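Q: I have 108 residues here and want to know how they pack in 3D. Can you give me a structure?
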Amino acid sequence: MNMDKKIDNKDNVNLLQHREEFETVYGIISAHKKRAMNAVHNESLNMLWEVGAYVSDRLKKAAWGDGVVRMLAEYIIPEVPRQRVGAIVQSIRWCSSMRPIRRRTSTR
């Protein structure tokens, strides 16, 4: 962290006295932020695999077709208003296409 701001001499002396402690605190914050971001990323991947598994199974059993996938996308769209239905349909299809890959590479 850059603590080399222009400050008066009194503050500069105090800053230098505490710089190591401040860096320690900043290091703790940075480490937890990184772990939190990794946890969010991992959960996002798990969500994609789970959605893919569900949709893939429904498609394989012929319980769903492309029309139902589009209906699912339209059902989801109010929760993600900045997305287009077509983009969600593509994402759902991508998730379901990854299911066979997960099955081959999974260690579960």
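Q: Anything worth noting?
A: Helices lie at 9-60, 66-76, 85-105. Residues 9-60 form the longest helix (52 residues).
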